[in-house]
Amino acid sequence: MTLSLCRLSTTLISLLITHTHNNKTATALSIPTTLSYISVLPPQMSWHPTYKSSKFRNVYGKAGNREQCFDGIPITRNVHDNHFCAVNAKFLAIVTETAGGGSFLVIPVNKPGRFDPHHPKVCGHQGGVLDIKWNPFTDNIIASCSEDCSVRIWEIPEGGLRRNMSKAMLELYGHSRRVGLIEWHPTCCGLLFSAGYDFKILIWNLEEGAPVKMIDCHSDVVLCMSFNTDGSLLATSCKDKHLRVIEPRSGRVLQEADCKSHRVNRVVFLGNMKRLATTGVSRWNTRQVALWDQEDLSMPIIEEEIDGLSGLLFPFYDADTHMLYLAGKGDGNIRYYEVSTEKPYLQYLMEFRSPAPQKGLGVMPKHGLDVTTCEVFRFYKLVTLKGLIEPISMIVPRRSETYQEDIYPMTASTEPAVTADEWLSGIDREPVLMSLKAGYKRPCRTAFKAPRKGWKTMVNGLDLLESIPPKTENELLRMFFRQQDELKRLRDELVQKDVRVQQLELELNNLRNAKNM
């Protein structure tokens, strides 16, 4: 039997060589399955699979049931490319549709259900709200930016709103056009970055209530901002089709890429891997994801086409699990990948599918996840057509009921690593880490105090409110009314000072008369 098998093997190999010599394809040979152990393929071909073993290979998405959703919410219909949603361990904030001005809701995250139409709102902006972000170190502090050219800081009371809130903790004016994007510094509680349609990025020191730095290296609107782990680098994507890595203290551009073949829309730092992930559109209008070396943006490390849809792709990165999630605006699905420093660099894992299209997505911080169910990521999906906020949990299937330390490494805590003055002086520190197993008691103190002095709009000797003239009638009206308010405030201060001067003069006269007597 062994001899006949060897003869048959020799015959097959000779036939293969003959067919190759005659320029005929070798695939015409039919090899019996009983002889599959006989290798007749070229030595460079491999039987190994294209993917590597991963503990996140079977991660699946689980949508919340009706009782876990937030229903009846008038989600904004603004077409601005943003999420219009922000989540932390206490509250869920959603930008709402209002007639005149801008407002957003703040709902306790542990109280899902049907929304009351008369629920109190945060409604201090004179224009539509374009972005909202919770302070990563204090659960009650939220920042918002608007079409009224302002950035505002709000302090939400414990338990949520009981009445409409129109008075902000801080009102920050420095942009001459609407502000479309805000980001908190990842390791400092008192620094906020804002990007406006005046092509500028302002760094606000909230302890002073004033801009301390201005980044003026963009020639068009900034589409996205992302920090590395310690906040020493800032990556931006811009409408001028350039990808930049910036040193935020000096505003110096360290790396810049002219993305002609891959038009970048969104960018995110990949933790400590010294990599960037971008989503955009190729020359053939297909959606793409690309990985870049942050120290060399001459060309991407890898580019991968996703599909031919037109919706914007939002990237979300989990530095603890090295998973990259891609969710398209108007799509119903969420794709997720595992990122590594070795080939293939980007490994497709699975896809969560849903029939309802998403307008935006909020992401729960790590300390707000349910570790008992092996939840590694949680989205809050905005479904505009239904007025619904739907939680989607990404879960690692495990049979054991014990704490899974391999999927929950030490993660960033809610304790700031540096102060605003330390960071501005050049000090960088990695985030303070915490374990999700032992739990973490967050400090109840306020992250910063509102300044007592008035607003400053001078940066590097330039008045930000007068640096760019208004282009439209609405911008001109906003600037006019803002200047009128400023004049009124200055008149009131002048009157108060005149009264104080008169009081001091009377006291001085009384003292002189007393001495003469």
Describe the model.
The protein is built from three helices and 34 strands. The protein is mostly beta strands and 517 residues long. The radius of gyration is 29 Å and the shape is globular. Helix content is 13%, strand content 35%. The protein has helices at 2-21, 420-424, 473-516; strands at residues 60-63, 70-71, 85-87, 91-95, 102-108, 113-114, 122-125, 129-134, 141-146, 150-155, 170-173, 179-184, 191-196, 201-205, 210-215, 222-227, 234-238, 242-247, 252-258, 262-269, 275-282, 287-293, 302-307, 313-318, 323-328, 334-339, 346-352, 360-363, 375-383, 388-395, 411-412, 433-434, 458-459, 462-463. A hairpin with a 4-residue loop joins strand 29 and strand 30. Residues 1-6, 15-49 and 440-444 have low confidence and may be disordered. Strands 1, 2, 6, 28, 29 and 30 form a six-stranded mixed sheet that branches. It has a four-stranded antiparallel sheet with strand order 3-4-5-7, with no helix packed on it. Strands 8-9-10-11 form a four-stranded antiparallel sheet, with no helix packed on it. It holds the Pfam family DUF1899. Residues 487-514 form a coiled coil. Residues 1-20 form the signal peptide.
